[in-house]
Amino acid sequence: MKCVVKFGSNLLVGKDGKIDESFIERIASEVSRAMDAGHEIFIVSSGARAGGYGILKSKGAKLSEKQALCAIGQIELMKIYSEKFQKFGKVVSQLLLTREDFSNRKRFINIMNTIDSLKHFGVVPIINENDTVATEEMKVGDNDTLSAYLSIGLKADILVLFSVVDGVLDQEGNVIDEFDERKIIANLGSTNWGSGGIATKIKAAQMASDAGVTSIITNGKKMNLTKMLNGEVEGTNFRPSKRPNAKKAWIGFVAKPKGKIYVDEGAKAAIFNGKSLLPVGVISCEGKFSKDDTVEIINKDQTIAMAAVNCSSRVVENTIKRKLKGHDEICHADKIMVLMK
């Protein structure tokens, strides 16, 4: 089974603000046991800034200071991971990624190929956002989202988001076994060291499950990875949808849209029936995009699909202005990922 596991800072950081080495050794033990049983495990790990704090005793106020802490702490974090995994005969590797690494199709494929090669060598990939260089435009946002992108790209069977709570809780404090959007959940907010809270985990789990990946939010302090991979799940489970092909999954959930195309009811119906988007159904467009860029397809203020375009925004605008109703496709059906019906 192919599994992506994500550990947030609040699991990895002790009460003293330093990285909890005993917990990382537990991660190494659990992951090594699962790998020895034949499973493929990919780790998404936070904790770089906390590692920097453990050395400098400063949390940093400015963005540049926080990035400096990450630059220092990432080395410390990986040193600990390396030492702990060595006890179980495993070699670790580091991948630091930004939003653009996922948005650019070629870079995205290169990353997946690199991870495949690491798997071939029996190496444990440990992935984190490249916080030392990421600006607002380049940031994935949080490691929950990064782990969802990764699970989609790897065509993982399961994504496990380890948290400091037992799962998604309802207002009475009970764990919701099967996630249901209609249920009112407890608002746990963001955590002390992490960049997000339960909301970012739910969003990431939904994204991955919509792309065909079974997703789970559960308590990392009670971690038993082997039992989970054998189907004994404690926490909140997000049931997967039918898995789209790799290109559609990337377009729908990973690629960063460069613009918007607004369509009428006829185009909406055609898209939902698996047809291409033709000029006759286009009302307007926003943004500057080029051929093969990804755009949002919008009907009545709702994003109904994501798609790779066959032409630039200038061509689309000219088509609308001249009221051209030709049969040249704006977006081919094979490059449209329907998000809602």
Provide a quick synopsis of the model.
The protein has helices at 9-12, 21-36, 48-56, 63-86, 99-103, 105-120, 143-153, 198-210, 225-229, 246-254, 265-272, 313-321; strands spanning 2-7, 40-45, 92-97, 124-129, 158-163, 214-219, 236-238, 259-263, 282-286, 294-299, 302-308, 336-338. With 341 residues, the chain is an alpha/beta fold.
How would you describe this structure to a colleague?
With 341 residues, this protein is α/β, with parallel strands linked by helices. The chain has two domains: 2-248, 3-Layer(aba) Sandwich (Carbamate kinase), CATH 3.40.1160; 257-338, Archaeosine Trna-guanine Transglycosylase, Chain: A, domain 4 (Roll). The protein is 38% helix and 19% strand. The protein contains twelve helices and twelve strands. It has helices spanning 9-12, 21-36, 48-56, 63-86, 99-103, 105-120, 143-153, 198-210, 225-229, 246-254, 265-272, 313-321, and strands at residues 2-7, 40-45, 92-97, 124-129, 158-163, 214-219, 236-238, 259-263, 282-286, 294-299, 302-308, 336-338. The strands form two sheets. A seven-stranded mixed sheet has the order 3-4-2-1-5-6-7, sandwiched between helices. Strands 9-8-10-11-12 form a five-stranded mixed sheet, sandwiched between helices. A hairpin with a 2-residue loop joins strand 10 (294-299) and strand 11 (302-308). The protein is globular. The model has no long low-confidence stretch (mean pLDDT 87).
